[in-house]
Amino acid sequence: MEKNKHCFYVVECSDGSYYAGYTNHIEKRIQTHNSGKGARYTRARLPVGLKYVENHEDKRTAMQAEYHFKQLTRKQKEEYMQKGERYVAAKKLSAK
Q1: In a domain, 1, yes or no
Q2: Which of 13, 36, 54, 85 has the most C-beta neighbours closer than 10 Å?
Q3: How many domains, in total, are found in the chain?
Q4: What is the SS3 assignment for 90?
Q5: Is 34 inside a domain boundary?
């Protein structure tokens, strides 16, 4: 994935919980999470694996998607990720 793309992403933590965020460089962000320098939430739940990625034209819409996702129940989050075609792409990327 190219740098400077606006992405909403979801990682699955070692305890099975989800963490959603925004980035413009997905590979670097996942490395940051797994090095223990990412969000405080993920630092205590390492390692994390990329579960879902959604590309957006701008930062605003990517962050709106993140906000919307965080309002959902766990079941709704799983349904949201299953419906998205980017779920498969995220699974391939996390296998690297």
Answers
A1: no
A2: 54
A3: 1
A4: helix
A5: yes
Instruction: Please give the model's pTM, rounded to 2 decimal places.
Output: 0.83
CATH number reported for the structural domain that contains residue 47 in this entry: 3.40.1440.10
List the domain range (segments joined by +) for residue 21: 6-94
- Give Cβ neighbours of residue 1 (< 8 Å, ≥ 6 apart): 7, 25, 26, 27, 53, 55, 93
Q: Classify residue 24 by burial, with Cβ atoms within 10 Å: 0-12, 13-18, 19+.
A: middle
Query: How far apart, in Å, are the Cα atoms of 72 and each of 2, 14, 65, 77, 78?
Result: 29, 21, 11, 6, 9
Q: Distance between CA atoms of 89 and 87, rounded to whole angstroms? A: 5
Cross-strand partners of 50: 11
